[in-house]
Amino acid sequence: MGKVLMKGNEVIAEAAVHAGCKYYFGYPITPQSELVAYMAKRLPEVGGLFLQAESEVAAINMVYGAASAGVRVMTSSSSPGVSLKQEGISYLVGAELPAVIINVMRGGPGLGSIQPSQSDYFQATKGGGHGDYQIPVFAPATLQEIVDLMQDAFDIADRYRTPVYILGDGMLGQMMEPVEFTERKAAELPPKDWATTGTRGDGGPKITNSLRLDPDDLEKHNNHLQEKYSKIKENEVRFENYLTEDADYIVVAYGTVSRIAKNAIKKAREKGIKVGMIRPISLWPFPEKPFYETRENVKAYLTVEMSAGQMVEDVRLAVNGYKPVHFYGRTGGMVPSQEDILAEIIKMAGGDQ
Amino acid sequence: MGKVLMKGNEVIAEAAVHAGCKYYFGYPITPQSELVAYMAKRLPEVGGLFLQAESEVAAINMVYGAASAGVRVMTSSSSPGVSLKQEGISYLVGAELPAVIINVMRGGPGLGSIQPSQSDYFQATKGGGHGDYQIPVFAPATLQEIVDLMQDAFDIADRYRTPVYILGDGMLGQMMEPVEFTERKAAELPPKDWATTGTRGDGGPKITNSLRLDPDDLEKHNNHLQEKYSKIKENEVRFENYLTEDADYIVVAYGTVSRIAKNAIKKAREKGIKVGMIRPISLWPFPEKPFYETRENVKAYLTVEMSAGQMVEDVRLAVNGYKPVHFYGRTGGMVPSQEDILAEIIKMAGGDQ
Amino acid sequence: MGKVLMKGNEVIAEAAVHAGCKYYFGYPITPQSELVAYMAKRLPEVGGLFLQAESEVAAINMVYGAASAGVRVMTSSSSPGVSLKQEGISYLVGAELPAVIINVMRGGPGLGSIQPSQSDYFQATKGGGHGDYQIPVFAPATLQEIVDLMQDAFDIADRYRTPVYILGDGMLGQMMEPVEFTERKAAELPPKDWATTGTRGDGGPKITNSLRLDPDDLEKHNNHLQEKYSKIKENEVRFENYLTEDADYIVVAYGTVSRIAKNAIKKAREKGIKVGMIRPISLWPFPEKPFYETRENVKAYLTVEMSAGQMVEDVRLAVNGYKPVHFYGRTGGMVPSQEDILAEIIKMAGGDQ
Amino acid sequence: MGKVLMKGNEVIAEAAVHAGCKYYFGYPITPQSELVAYMAKRLPEVGGLFLQAESEVAAINMVYGAASAGVRVMTSSSSPGVSLKQEGISYLVGAELPAVIINVMRGGPGLGSIQPSQSDYFQATKGGGHGDYQIPVFAPATLQEIVDLMQDAFDIADRYRTPVYILGDGMLGQMMEPVEFTERKAAELPPKDWATTGTRGDGGPKITNSLRLDPDDLEKHNNHLQEKYSKIKENEVRFENYLTEDADYIVVAYGTVSRIAKNAIKKAREKGIKVGMIRPISLWPFPEKPFYETRENVKAYLTVEMSAGQMVEDVRLAVNGYKPVHFYGRTGGMVPSQEDILAEIIKMAGGDQ
């Protein structure tokens, strides 16, 4: 099919369709409206269903229903809309239902702005909803990476029976880049014999439920979830190392910010500062290994986020006191510039080269 | 008035009334139903208003309205109900509105059980809703402490213009203890000249809003919030040190778990293990100082939670690699016993004394 | 207190306060927004409560709650908003709860226009909700009549334990006229010993409910309701006869249309046509008596409505074939002019005088 | 395909599928739950969509959306649930959208009972929602008649661009009878060139809307609706005459009550009373003609309903004073027995034969 030039929000939608997603439930909110509009038009073409629900609360509960029926289903929103879905997301986890949830983050808190942000990192990685749970969270940095991660996201959702987040930001949603939708071999996935599609003589009625009134039973279920999380940590960590081999300093950034950071790193290298980057692609499970491998040798880390400082906590946990961890952030829809980041690198490197 | 024997959920309610709370909006959920019932009866007696809303989403937005009018207002729920309020909580933060939010935590995720839990620590302290925000979170361990913290909670809410969480668990809500409602001198608080109660010639119309479409404006607002958070970190940290002065080992626990831990510590001391406890009372801002003061000298820390491990991250961040941080947790409504904790202390101390 | 010049929507609100209404739940909609705004400001001054609910569905259910507690409570809306309340209104009837419901009618169907209309006559008088029920419906024609009928409405609601409609239209809501709020002796009303305000040793718990699963029980309840309706028909019919004694022709009109019709009648009398008017003030129970008394002697009736023809059915039922019943109506927010009505009178009188 | 033995609620569902209905939105309520369950299973088999919405309000608005897209869509409920849909039904009318709405009536008012009833006649025929509108209402008396009327209902909905009611009762929904689903020639229907399925170069964007702020415009629209209603009155009246040719007395009954009445009429004929029956099949437009044709010759009419007396008003309007119109009704889920009706016939005939 070759490369096509598309807008980020449309790439998210088309990538989902390529990954076999046939059901979408959501409610429109800027800056991801093109995604919703694309799905409304596209899903009927592949025999699927688009439904704009009464509210975000309704939408996430429809996702629960569709996921229970064993189909590939997605919802999307932006920050305030995702907050409304927190109860439903916790229900998906409790009932072990696969689904993909897109958050095209905007500046907060509250209604905030409609400009790009990364300030929902904590909500996605630490459990915005209640209860002991984790959800795999992927943060693509380019439109092509969206295509590749989306297939993974649906596969991981099905393999581990879990919701999966794709975390983008307004910039990613609005930018245009050429992308290629390559067909890849379908993953080998366990049969969905738990789906509530009828008994067909294979045992009693199927139920998807998150209510476990007996605490002993619920703790067993939680232990089962923790074992699942261990397996995800083993198998599904994603990250990119960029010029880290000889690095004295390491920038940590994800999503679109990592692209700006790369340019700043190039400029810093031109000035003789040996700086590299660790780019977490999976935000949970957080890639600890590249930090374990570098924390002995580098002099300091600099986390750059479009937030007041959220991922930096995971960086500090991974570095565990070995070296200083600095932070630079912009909020409210403001995007760190190449110059900003370069200045922070220079400051970290102890002078104004 | 002397001491009266009361149930935890009722103490929360009466303490709020003593703190000047006259408005309550909520929706019932086990295990905090007695709180709702108490408020329904009590608030009209003090000229206040109780309203059971259509849903948790409606309730938190009514809290927004009442807080905008400058009155002391509270809502309460248990885990799934609190998840439904995440959007509204982020709106309260964005509009800088004072309110007190009670979460009597139950086992999760999803509907989970109705037994006690501490698994919403992350949601409360890291921002369950979207956007860069923090909310002061207090976790009382006794019914008397509820009374004292509630007055603080309402004062802090008003002083800093912020929602404040009180985090309890089902055990705390159901236990009975004698409590005393002492009158204390009213705190000196800034006038609520921002409240939307009419202009009265003091300038243009008052508006409470969290929408700031200009990212530059929103970033300024976020910087203002961060400055506020710095002040709260300076002034509002609460914790208890228990036998830490000579301790080789330190248990970290909050809420009802800390009471069980205390007994385990006594037993361990009888066995010659010099163990103490740091009990965070404010979960955010997290009390880092007692860790800074002990991390050089103690040999290890043990965090005990009714969760799969949440506060332990803040402990590890405060200890910052100086010493090992162990974890012991029960989930789903299961409560760690004194024997369990003692066994963990002995294990940490390197043997079976 | 003397006469004051006020707007219709405000008169409705103030009249309700004078009638002892202390609770209001609603959701704003044009053309009755001034009513909502007035209540928001006024009720706290008399120790009452105003609450803007999440939706019309929520509002009518809050009315159910307040009415259950035995207080005087009101809601108001305009046509589409009243449709949303139909389930709740049927619940009020089933549980025999007193409340006053204002409908300031606008043009329909659907969202329609925001101009005046009388097209919800059927909804109000025939049971817009499900089940066999009737609700007393009053239609004032002047602002002073609102004041007088409002006191009756609350008294009738309490006396018979029933919701009561006040039906206005956009014109009535927007017009200004001098009104006087005279104090009148409180009606003797039965005690509200059914209210769910606690048992106080006077028997078991009080419950307000509309569920009666045993059909025999439900039929008994329906028979009880029908007996109540018979009493209301006996005692609460309201109408005005205008120049009917010598009339050859009779115009039937209610609300603001009756005021225009009066002028047309004066003009017709000047032309020598002996025409009078029956003005139903209670739309249910419909005033049949003035028709029984005139149908032998008059030659024809002309019903004029701001609708496609609704009250005309009740006129035809009352006339019962004795004489022709003509109809003239305007819809969609268009108001019949004096000239229009005069032309219809002349046509009915058989020529062009 | 031959005759199959099925339950009434399932027949409604299967008949809709046979009539080309592919979309269903609803919310379950007794006594029509089998209908919902059947649709959930059946629609996916024909490439259609079943969706259980968040509430009845959500469901009817989804019907609006699907109807706008030009597909055949249905919703169903029982009395309280239908009341919740009144706003949405008025919107369908205003926007001239075709849809079929099933009401399997239960005893009311309020939650009432779950036993059969006919007490929503007024709601269906007089406009339960606001605004000047009428909806074709069909009331089948046998399961085979459901099959036949359903095809008509969808055709009429499309031909006139209007919602159409099918009014059943709990008895009809629960009874089992053999039915045959015969294929019949598709009706010639106008193309849905108004559907919002894209412009395709045939003019500007398509919009379905019920808001017409200009009253002159709205009145024109209402006149257009009234013309449509005239055509429906001309073409779509349905009724059955049973032994009316020589009748001295006529029973009027619809739906399941008419079946019991038929047996009572046979018994009365055995006793020498010449009694027949008019069975309205379309409740709106109400069949006036059989009354015009009989009111000169018969001695009296007896309307029998499972209500406190609703259709009897339309009977009285059609008889227009020519002859007495008696009424016998049971309410709350109680069903008139053959003996009851026979006794009423004998009473009407002036003695106890």
TrEMBL record, chains A, B, C, D:
GO MF entries: oxidoreductase activity
Residue ranges constituting the Pyruvate:ferredoxin oxidoreductase core domain according to the UniProt record: 247-341
Keyword Oxidoreductase set for record: yes
CDD domains: TPP_PYR_PFOR_IOR-alpha_like
Domain Pyruvate flavodoxin/ferredoxin oxidoreductase pyrimidine binding: 14-185
Keywords: Oxidoreductase
UniProt-annotated stretches for the region Disordered: 192-212
Superkingdom of the organism of origin: Bacteria
Pfam families xrefs: PFOR_II (PF17147), POR_N (PF01855)
Stored InterPro entries: 2-oxoacid_oxidoreductase, PFOR_II, Pyrv_Fd/Flavodoxin_OxRdtase_N, THDP-binding, Transketo_C/PFOR_II
Stated name of the protein: 3-methyl-2-oxobutanoate dehydrogenase subunit VorB
Organism, as annotated: Vulcanibacillus modesticaldus
